[in-house]
Structures are given as structure tokens and as C-alpha cells.
Automatic annotation (TrEMBL):
InterPro entries: DUF6494. Pfam families: DUF6494. This is Uncharacterized protein. It comes from the Bacteria.
């Protein structure tokens, strides 16, 4: 793949990671009684114009 492709992909993935972490942290800060609880999470990636739907699931545990 080209250098432009690699750079645009890295920029997009960095934005996804940073903004997703911020959203999760904010949700945990504003919710009550989250200490030590675990939450099932799902991230869905779709790309317009391509036949792509990629799903990542996992568990996020709030701080004790």
C-alpha cells in the first residue's frame, strides 16, 4: 500500500482510539455506582463504498 494510504489509516485509527477513550471515560465519570463494574463493549467499523463491517467486542472494567 502507498505511504499516503498508511498515513491516512494511522490518522483515522488514532482519532478512533483517542475519541473512543474520551467517550468511555466521560460516560464512567457521569454514571453513578460504576466502581469495579464490568461493561460489555462493541465497536462497529463500516466503510461507505466498501463491503466492510468489522465488529470488535470486549469487556471494559471500571477502576476500583
Amino acid at each position: 500500500m502507498s505511504e499516503d494510504f498508511n498515513m491516512s489509516m494511522r490518522k483515522f485509527l488514532k482519532q478512533v482510539g483517542v475519541t473512543s477513550q474520551q467517550a468511555i471515560e466521560e460516560a464512567l465519570r457521569t454514571a453513578e455506582g460504576t466502581t469495579g463494574k464490568s461493561y460489555e463493549a462493541k465497536m462497529v467499523l463500516t466503510i461507505d463504498g466498501l463491503d466492510v463491517e468489522h465488529v470488535v467486542t470486549g469487556t471494559i472494567k471500571a477502576a476500583d
